[in-house]
């Protein structure tokens, strides 16, 4: 058993830390439009510094980083409170998928631009009647001469309002009784007349996801990833890339817990720190145990991945545990602020981030596969329990 | 280099132990034990000693393997899986580390080789009737007489007092307050004036009460310094609770296996019950608890062996989480089995009762949480143990 990092890994950490010290933006704009260009700038700075897509081969602008270096990368980004990646979909999902199964032309056209943030990507999976059951999508793509015409509606499309491209699932043929068949992945240009984006406001007041209406939107053969009608396999391989991103959430959980400890020491009610209250302290000890448990589980799964060369279905355990625990922890963080905890924004008793993060956390047990779907996956793929009946 | 897993030798040792326990009939040994038939257990104990289980943490010069807390983990997990009776935990994860660290040469020579050979085991005599674990309420007294100690008092909730050869006894040797004035004494069970077995929910472990009337033992039986026993005991508790967590993980491992296997074969409404999400998702949540407890306990034992700064927080985190999770899992397991789960016939009840045995064993959840908070430096509470009027 060993929790240490090799000398080489520590050098990597130091190099990144030094780079962050020099390049981390000091002030974050509040206003929406300014914030977006701020995030785009940050993406470009990362790419120019060689700190985006680090696991990619050098010829695509990466640095061939190992899995452990990727872990360190997440640790350091969280530690430094670095701005979020605005091209998360592009870098963590589309890029790796194209490198794996894209054509040379697609790699040429897209990879560099997504790394630098010149082109922002979104993920067009969910539809009004296809959420957990993604195979029920109805958006259709029909061949019309040498182009494809796409019609339908997508929903909950994160970054859709700022995206230049969409990794889109559409139905190209009907195979009765086999909903997974006949789906194709398209790389859709969002900047065209057939694409209309309508923002949706989230419960935390922010606007990050959208409805996307497609009316004779156009794609060409060159925009298809993999083979026509075989998009389901492409999607599955992309999902594995998405899972690798859980590391960032694990370290964020750790950081938020530490922030919570600091808060319970500093915040005083009637002259007494919250941590002096035995009930709060007991619950904090419980949350400590469980967050440590989640982090250690992650390290144990990581060890397996390092040994086997690829992640197993256990990564669903990490996603489920970390998202549910984060939600519970933030709920507690707001709850212990007492009656004043209902206030937020400029009137927040401590810092509105607690209230905002708390509300935001409700999305984490829905997006990327709901907790119930994760439980199905774990039950069926880890424990071998009988599969749900699926129509 | 990052490697959070047990090593090959540790896993190999686990396999030997599991094979040995399987051959003995797994939980059958505990079942027989609860019916008063201890012969199977005694046979098994011999085999386990031959395998080397009783020498793991004992240094090589006294006939052991000279290994650490982490090496004990797979064995404890396997014992927990089988709800094995006996005082292995108290012997290997409490008395042995204390003897190794605080024992005199003579004490080590007397006890360690016999423990390694499996011919001597120890239990702990701490709590007194109707009292808590608070050191300052201890009344059982030892007074000096020449080069001897004369002990008087009653100790209760002594685990498996009737299964062991020796006891580690905590006695008052001076006026106290905040744990002062206590000493630890090694006594043999046959020196005890009287012993009775109490009725306990968990019949896989016997709970006994001992009476000591003018029991005279040589001063050389004191382990650690006289009047400093509480600090020594607290150090031993780190080993004990780290190990207890592993034992609990073993039980949970078996519980999750029972529930998932049953959910695959039991059919209702024309389908296996594991297809119903009320069952499936509950078992998944049980699995999450199991793996979290396993991670926490592996880390805790590693932190203990390598003397990490966070060892106290790590150990008591593992202990609180594993304890509560074990009760939760044992309860769910009964529900998942329906009517058959409510019978003596199925193993479900063994695990529930065992879970309760360890709940308040050598401490309480709320106290362990205070230990976590103290370990992390965020404790603000008044001194934990207040003087009670005598
Ligand atoms: C913050 C956020 C960002 C998102 N970003 C994107 C994005 O960029 N692109 C995109 O395509 N989608 C995105 N989504 C959509 C997300 O993937 C879906 O919301 C999710 O898959 C659930 O689908 P649904 O909303 O249709 O809910 P439903 O599938 O209708 O689920 C409703 C409830 O039923 C439960 N349920 C459904 N099926 C089962 C079952 N088999 N067993 C048990 N319970 C079940 C669910 O768990 C849930 O509790 C995002 C969602 C959120 C919250």
Automatic annotation (TrEMBL), chain A:
Pfam family, one: Acyl-CoA_dh_M
Cofactor(s) this protein requires: FAD
Acyl-CoA dehydrogenase/oxidase C-terminal domain: residues covered: 229-383
Molecular-function GO terms, alphabetical: flavin adenine dinucleotide binding; oxidoreductase activity, acting on the CH-CH group of donors
Gene3D superfamilies registered for this protein in UniProt: Acyl-CoA dehydrogenase/oxidase, N-terminal domain (1.10.540.10), Butyryl-CoA Dehydrogenase, subunit A, domain 2 (2.40.110.10), Butyryl-CoA Dehydrogenase, subunit A, domain 3 (1.20.140.10)
This protein's record includes keyword Flavoprotein: yes
Signal peptide range: none
Domain Acyl-CoA oxidase/dehydrogenase middle: 122-215
Domain of life: Bacteria
Domain Acyl-CoA dehydrogenase/oxidase N-terminal: 6-118
Family listed: Belongs to the acyl-CoA dehydrogenase family.
Protein name (database record): Acyl-CoA dehydrogenase
Species this protein is from: Oceanobacillus halophilus
């Amino acid at each position: 058993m060993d929790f240490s990092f090799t000398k080489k890994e520590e050098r990597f950490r130091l190099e990144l830390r030094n780079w962050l010290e020099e390049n981390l933006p000091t002030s974050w704009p509040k206003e929406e439009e300014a914030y977006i260009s701020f995030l785009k700038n940050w993406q470009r700075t990362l790419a120019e510094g060689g700190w985006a897509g680090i696991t990619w081969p050098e010829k695509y602008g990466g640095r061939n980083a190992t899995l452990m270096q990727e872990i360190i990368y997440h640790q350091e980004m969280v530690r430094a409170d670095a701005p979020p990646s605005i091209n998360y979909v592009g870098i963590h999902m589309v890029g790796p998928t194209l490198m794996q199964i894209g054509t040379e032309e697609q790699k040429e056209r897209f990879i560099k631009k997504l790394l630098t943030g010149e082109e922002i990507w979104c993920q067009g999976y969910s539809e009004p009647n296809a959420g957990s059951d993604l195979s029920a999508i109805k958006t259709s793509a029909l061949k019309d001469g040498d182009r494809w015409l796409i019609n339908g509606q997508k929903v909950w499309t994160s970054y859709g309002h700022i995206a230049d491209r969409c990794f889109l699932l559409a139905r190209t043929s009907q195979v009765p009784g086999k909903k997974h068949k006949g789906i194709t992945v398209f790389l859709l240009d969002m900047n065209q007349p057939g694409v209309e984006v309508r923002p949706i406001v989230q419960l935390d007041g922010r606007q990050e996801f959208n409805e996307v209406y497609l009316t004779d939107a156009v794609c060409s053969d060159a925009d298809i990833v993999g083979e026509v009608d075989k998009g389901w396999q492409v999607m599955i391989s992309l999902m594995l890339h998405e899972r690798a991103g859980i590391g960032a959430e694990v370290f964020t959980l750790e950081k938020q817990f530490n922030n919570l400890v600091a808060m319970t020491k500093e915040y005083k009610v009637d002259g007494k720190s919250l941590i002096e209250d035995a009930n709060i302290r007991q619950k904090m000890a419980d949350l400590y145990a469980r967050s440590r448990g989640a982090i250690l589980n992650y390290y144990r799964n990581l060890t397996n991945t390092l040994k086997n060369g690829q992640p197993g279905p256990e990564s669903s355990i990490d996603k489920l545990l970390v998202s549910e625990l984060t939600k519970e922890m933030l709920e507690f963080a707001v709850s212990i602020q007492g009656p004043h905890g209902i206030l937020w924004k400029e009137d927040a008793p401590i810092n509105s981030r607690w209230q905002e993060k708390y509300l935001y956390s409700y999305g984490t047990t829905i997006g990327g596969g709901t907790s119930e779907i994760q439980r199905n996956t774990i039950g069926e793929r880890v424990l071998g329990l009988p599969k749900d009946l699926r129509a | 280099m990052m490697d959070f897993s047990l090593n090959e030798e540790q896993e190999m040792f686990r396999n030997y132990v599991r094979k040995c326990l399987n051959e003995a009939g797994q939980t059958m040994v505990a079942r027989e034990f609860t019916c008063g038939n201890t012969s199977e257990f005694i046979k098994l104990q011999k085999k386990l000693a031959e395998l080397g289980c009783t020498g793991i943490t004992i240094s090589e010069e006294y006939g052991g393997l000279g290994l650490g807390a982490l090496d004990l983990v797979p064995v404890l997990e396997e014992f927990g899986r089988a709800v094995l009776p006996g005082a292995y935990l108290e012997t290997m994860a409490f008395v042995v580390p204390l003897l190794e660290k605080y024992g005199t040469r003579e004490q080590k020579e007397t006890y360690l080789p016999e423990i390694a050979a499996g011919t001597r085991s120890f239990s702990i005599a701490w709590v007194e009737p109707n009292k808590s674990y608070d050191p300052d309420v201890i009344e059982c007294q030892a007074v000096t007489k020449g080069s001897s100690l004369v002990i008087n008092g009653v100790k209760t909730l002594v685990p498996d007092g009737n299964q062991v050869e020796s006891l580690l006894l905590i006695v008052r040797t001076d006026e106290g307050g905040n744990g002062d004035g206590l000493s630890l004494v090694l006594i043999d069970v046959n020196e005890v004036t009287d012993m009775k077995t109490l009725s306990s929910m968990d019949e896989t472990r016997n709970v006994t009460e001992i009476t000591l009337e003018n029991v005279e033992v040589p001063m050389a039986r004191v382990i650690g310094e006289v009047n400093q026993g509480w600090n020594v005991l607290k150090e031993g508790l780190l080993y004990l609770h780290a190990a207890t967590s592993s034992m609990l993980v073993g039980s949970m491992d078996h519980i999750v296996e029972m529930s998932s296997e049953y959910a695959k074969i039991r059919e209702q409404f024309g389908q296996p019950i594991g297809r119903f999400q009320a069952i499936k998702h509950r078992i998944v949540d049980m699995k999450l608890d199991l793996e979290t407890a396993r991670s926490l306990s592996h880390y805790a034992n590693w932190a203990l062996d390598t003397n990490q700064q966070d060892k106290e927080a790590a150990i008591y985190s593992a202990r609180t989480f594993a304890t509560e999770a074990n009760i939760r899992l044992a309860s769910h397991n009964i529900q998942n089995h329906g009517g058959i789960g409510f019978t003596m016939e199925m193993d479900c009840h063994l695990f529930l009762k065992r879970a309760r045995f360890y709940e308040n064993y050598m401490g309480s959840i709320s106290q362990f949480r205070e230990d976590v908070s103290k370990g992390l430096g965020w404790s603000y509470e008044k001194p934990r143990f207040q003087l009670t009027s005598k």
